[in-house]
Amino acid sequence: YDDARSLIRAIVAGCIWIPYFRMSERVKRTFVH
After folding, report:
1. What is each CA distance from 23 to 1, 9, 20, in whole angstroms?
2. CA 10 to centroid of chain Cα atoms
């Protein structure tokens, strides 16, 4: 149960963090220009 829970947590974190990082990279580019 613990392994499955941690795996789900990792997937959820990835789904949240990956778009967030992409968005922040875009924001940095716009601020630089």
Report:
1. 33, 21, 5
2. 10
CA angle 24, 27, 30 (to 5 degrees): 155
Report residue 2 as tokens: 């613990």
How far, in Å, CA of 16 to CA of 24, rounded?
12
What span, in angstroms and rounded, lies between the C-alpha atoms of 3 and 7? 6
Q: What is the pLDDT of residues 1-33, one digit of tens each?
A: 789 999 999 999 999 999 898 988 888 888 776
What confidence score (pLDDT) does residue 33 get?
Answer: 64
pTM above 0.90, yes or no: no
